[in-house]
Specification:
Helix content is 35%, strand content 20%. The chain is of the alpha+beta class and 628 residues long. It folds into three domains: 172 residues, Immunoglobulin-like, CATH 2.60.40.1730; 146 residues, Neutral Protease Domain 2 (Neutral Protease, domain 2, Orthogonal Bundle); 141 residues, Alpha Horseshoe (Serine Threonine Protein Phosphatase 5, Tetratricopeptide repeat). Helix 4 runs antiparallel to helix 5. The radius of gyration is 25 Å and the shape is globular. The protein starts with 19 loop residues before the first strand and ends with a helix. GO terms for molecular function: aminopeptidase activity; epoxide hydrolase activity; metallopeptidase activity; zinc ion binding.
């Protein structure tokens, strides 16, 4: 039988998931910190979609050391197919019998990860905040789960998961912890941590983290892992030395956020909503792993002004985790919807004007991404062509912000009241399923079919223009009430040095950190950059270089670098050595290399081992171009 590696809907998987569907995974791993690898086995339950016609299972695999493959304890014949970059080498498993339609079989694969695993980052004690213990965490989105174990590494397949993870240090996974730890205890003071995920999830939400001697202090999931509460159904986990400030940062708003989105969609489906504050090398603001959001420590700004990230990751509990894009070409269905719901949460908690304020910040991020790629670039489309491409290369604010603006446009087109009726319907129809943009369109048209006015508007809508036109979409009329004062201040700076304006600390007394972000973004838009002297004056008078809010500090450094102010080079390189979030790292390197490329390259070489593999690869492309 011919080997089939081209599958429908998702071009970024080599698996034949159209013939077999994995519906359950049991992951048994030992975490070996000294060897920096996971060792164990994964058993996957596959359901046949054909009536005995497919006698081979093809899985995604990338730099995994496979020991054996078996069915019911009997070894099976297997081989790794030739490399297909950037997707790895498909694992072809030959079955010893025919399997009837809907029949299930359990395939066990013994394996260990390798040093080329792109999903795992291993930190030495010196790379953690308390300097006491090593640390490991995973980041599987978009196509990195295949570097942990062979799987159907596509968002179009969802499975329940049992985790049985042995480690000398506490473990967190994307499932609910199991209190019963009966069974044979592992040797050498190791503990087996067990988790169940009973809601089917795609492979990119497979998540593990292990490290620290203790995580936190009030309620207890296991006797050796205690947590600090941030709400009646939420805890935060962090290194012990950072616990207090993490708890303070999150406890005021987390439950408010949950209640707000439950009123918009429907009740939370995952039991607990918790947050793990990761070490600073984590490459994203947050990762929506079920039960435990993995979050960057950069949100802990001691002013509660950066926790919009939590509203965003919480919203993923509906958009993305329950209702999922069928492929990364339709990533906006995850991120556009999540950004839309995030801002609806913020409107409930802070007022409608704040939703528009957040959208204005998002529009700036969108324009930056379009400028970076180019207005006609494929990656500036809402629905992209990713055939033969690495989805990470397309990662930007575009699916977030262009997706948000499409949904915001639809809301305004048919009216908010009507759109609000569609939201729970959509998330009910596709609950625990995956979909593409065309199913989204047909579902919306079907829902409003009996509403003549809405139906007419939606049928006359240029759907193809929204889906496939590159560049910026039409700009909405945003409520600017929270940014008008910021625009006024930026215009005063724009008029310098030829005006009578004398900057004073009182200029920003009533501005929030997020308003300062908008102010600095406006300064970055000046056609004529500030002089180095004015850049230094801004930093000194407003105390920007010393800000503990990284959102503010990183933008000030970008302003200074654009101005040619050499005094910000040192602080910029220091920041690049203590944070690995790509939102900050990539634009800072781009700005730094324009003023002093040797320093940019030297800084990267000094810190590349600190960065997550995903971040490291993207910065290499920014600095050195696409490598063969």
């Amino acid at each position: 039988m011919a080997t089939i590696v081209n599958v429908p809907r998702d071009p970024n998987t080599l698996s034949n998931y159209h013939n077999w569907r994995c519906n359950h995974i049991t992951a048994n791993f030992d975490i070996l910190f000294h060897e920096k690898k996971l060792v164990g086995s994964v058993t996957q339950t596959f359901q046949s979609a054909t009536d005995g016609e497919s006698q081979e299972i093809i899985l995604d695999s990338n730099h995994v050391d496979i020991g054996s493959v078996s069915l019911d304890g009997k070894p099976l014949t297997w081989e790794l197919l030739p490399p297909s970059d950037p997707y790895g080498r498909a694992l072809k498993i030959k079955l010893d019998r025919s399997v009837q339609k809907n029949e299930t079989i359990d395939i066990e694969i013994a394996l260990q990860t390798t040093e080329k695993c792109t999903a795992l980052q291993w930190l030495t004690p010196g790379q953690t905040s308390n300097k006491r213990h090593p640390y490991m965490f995973s980041q599987c989105q978009a196509i990195h789960a295949r570097s942990i174990f062979p799987c159907q590494d596509t968002p179009d397949v969802k499975s329940t998961i049992d985790f049985n993870i042995s480690s000398p240090l506490p473990v967190i996974a994307s499932g609910l912890p199991v209190r019963d730890s009966s069974g044979t205890p592992p040797p050498n003071d190791r503990t087996v941590y067990r988790f169940h995920q009973r809601v089917p999830i795609p492979s990119y939400l497979f998540a593990l983290a292990s490290g620290f001697d203790k995580w936190i202090t009030k309620s207890t999931i296991r006797s050796d892992i205690s947590e600090a509460g941030i709400g009646p159904r939420s805890i935060v986990a962090s290194s012990p030395d950072k616990l207090g400030e993490c708890q303070w940062e999150l406890e005021a708003d987390t439950e408010k956020f949950i209640e707000a989105i439950e009123g918009i969609v429907y009740p939370y489906a995952w039991g607990k909503y918790n947050v793990l504050i990761l070490p600073p090398s984590f490459p994203y603001g947050g990762m929506e792993n079920p039960v435990f959001t993995f979050a960057t420590p950069s949100i802990i700004s001691k002013d509660r002004e950066n926790i919009d990230v939590i509203a965003h990751e919480l919203a993923h509990s509906w958009s993305g985790n329950l209702v999922t894009n069928a492929s990364w070409e339709h990533f906006w269905l995850n991120e556009g919807w999540t950004t839309y719901l995030e801002r609806r949460i913020l409107a409930v908690v802070h007022g409608e004007s704040y939703r528009h304020f957040s959208a204005i910040i998002g529009w700036k991020a969108l324009t930056d991404s379009v400028e970076h790629f180019g207005h006609d670039h494929e990656f500036t489309k809402l629905v992209t062509d990713l055939k033969g491409k690495d989805p990470d290369d397309a990662f930007s604010s575009i699916p977030y912000e262009k997706g948000f603006n499409f949904l915001f446009y639809l809301e305004n087109l048919i009216g908010k009241h009507k759109f609000d009726q569609f939201i729970p319907h959509y998330f009910t129809v596709f609950k625990e399923k995956s979909l593409d943009s065309y199913e989204f369109k047909s579902t919306m048209l079907d829902f409003f079919e009996s509403d003549a006015e809405a139906s007419k508007l939606l049928n006359e809508l240029d759907w193809d223009g929204w889906f496939y036109a590159p560049g910026l979409p039409p700009k909405p009329e945003f409520d600017t009430s929270l940014v008008d004062v910021v625009y006024s201040l930026s215009n005063k700076w724009k008029a310098l040095p030829g005006s009578r304006f004398k900057p004073h600390p009182s200029d920003i007394d009533d501005l929030t950190a997020n308003q300062m972000v908008v102010f600095l973004e406006q300064v970055l838009l000046f056609e004529r950059s500030l002089t180095p002297e004015l850049s230094r004056l801004m930093g000194d008078v407003y105390g920007l270089a010393k800000s503990e809010n990284i959102e503010v500090a990183n933008l000030y450094f970008q302003v200074g670098l654009k101005a040619g102010d050499s005094s910000v080079i040192g602080p910029t390189t220091k920041l690049l050595g203590r944070i690995g979030r790509m939102k900050f790292v990539r634009p800072l390197y781009r700005s730094l290399q324009k003023i002093d490329r040797p320093v940019a390259v030297e800084t990267f070489e000094q810190n590349k081992a600190f960065y997550h593999p995903i971040c490291r690869a993207m910065v290499e492309k920014d600095l050195f171009g696409k490598k063969d």
